Amino acid sequence: MTTLVLTIVGDDRAGLVAAVAEVIEGHGGNWENSQLAELAGAFAGIVEVSVASDRADALRAALTQVEGLVTVAIPGTPAATDAAPARRFAFQVLGNDHPGIVRELSSTLGAQGVSIERMTSETKDAAMAGGRLFEATISAVVPASVEVDGLVAELERLAHELQIDVTRLD
């Protein structure tokens, strides 16, 4: 079996997921995991599919015929990691919205070898003060070689600098 990772992006329309699922099933593939969302009238998703190795190329070709843009990628060999198991680390971010919050957070995590596993974010109107609020929930994988307390201290330093609140969830 081969694992394909599909990135689906297009104008949101009824039946897009069904069209992709039909092609996958029609080629003997199995829809394993997915994250799908509608954002500002566009549809975006990432889907993990398993398929027999000898049917992968035909599935890739068929997916390009689905109305909308469908890109297929095959995951590479995972990078070498610490021998000790990684740990999960989750936190929330809340503060006045301004450019650079995601860049600063992701750069701080990446500089310590921490990988973002899942992130959801949104901006919304601030109820009392006016303006916009930025809110995010981030789940990350921390290598065994990184001290979580040091990571927390670095995120607290960054939160002060960006004037946001960072709250650990685990």
UniProtKB/TrEMBL annotation:
Alphabetical list of SUPFAM superfamilies matching this protein: ACT-like
Any Pfam family hit: ACT_6
InterPro entries (alphabetical): ACT-like_dom_sf, ACT_dom, GcvR, UPF0237/GcvR_regulator
ACT domain location: 5-77, 90-170
Record's protein name: Glycine cleavage system protein R
Lineage per the UniProt record: Bacteria, Bacillati, Actinomycetota, Actinomycetes, Micrococcales
